[in-house]
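Retro notes (design track)

What went well: tokenization of the new backbones is finally stable.
What didn't: we kept losing track of which sequence belonged to which structure.
Fix going forward: every design gets posted as structure first, then sequence, in one message. First example under the new rule, 200 residues:
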């Protein structure tokens, strides 16, 4: 049997809540990371300087969701009730039981907090345990050391590099570093992530 198709849903944790992304999240999202070049440095889009520019990017993501190409989530910090970033399921292939977690960014105020750890714990639990996927993958810019380290800390395995994979707005090229986690690796990774969250 193929894995189940992901659909918009709410994933609730202790620190964060992942909920379907909507235009109503834009004011919070722009306040969290709009105009911040460091937040957008490694993403394949120019830094949005206005809420409208961020709305264009969100609109593209939501249009892709409408075509069944992704399932985007707003990441809401439960301590404030405000959205601090977004993330998505992408590249979903039910027959092969694989999907990607990506298009992720967070405002700088929540970097090095439990937000990313718990967000990934929620997404991975849902993918492996609720939807029945056998492989979850990530890809990131070869020069984005912070992202590469964060993915590795989840327990993902670096698989390889696609060279000259994507052109960026400034004309430069990204090599994409691929990571994955398989269903049989998930129990140990889940235990480590839960222990990390428990330590605060």
């Amino acid at each position: 049997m193929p894995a189940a198709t992901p659909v918009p849903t709410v994933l609730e944790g202790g620190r964060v809540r992942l909920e379907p992304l909507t235009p109503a999240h834009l004011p919070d999202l722009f306040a969290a990371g709009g105009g911040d070049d460091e937040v957008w440095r490694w993403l394949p889009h120019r830094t949005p300087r206005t809420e409208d520019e961020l709305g264009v990017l969100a609109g593209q993501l939501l249009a892709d969701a409408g075509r069944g190409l992704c399932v985007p989530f707003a990441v809401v910090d439960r301590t404030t009730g405000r959205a601090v970033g977004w993330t998505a399921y992408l590249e979903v292939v039910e027959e092969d039981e694989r999907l990607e977690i990506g298009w992720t960014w967070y405002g700088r105020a929540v970097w090095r907090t439990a937000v990313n750890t718990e967000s990934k714990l929620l997404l991975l639990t849902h993918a492996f345990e609720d939807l029945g996927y056998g492989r979850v993958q990530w890809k990131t810019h070869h020069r984005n050391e912070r992202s590469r380290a964060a993915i590795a800390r989840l327990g993902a395995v670096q698989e390889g590099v696609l060279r000259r994979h994507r052109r960026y707005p400034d004309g430069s090229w990204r090599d994409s570093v691929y990571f994955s986690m398989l269903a049989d690796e998930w129990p140990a990774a889940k235990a480590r992530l839960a222990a990390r969250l428990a330590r605060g």
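Added context from the reviewer: The domain at 11-199 is CATH 3.40.630.30 (Aminopeptidase).
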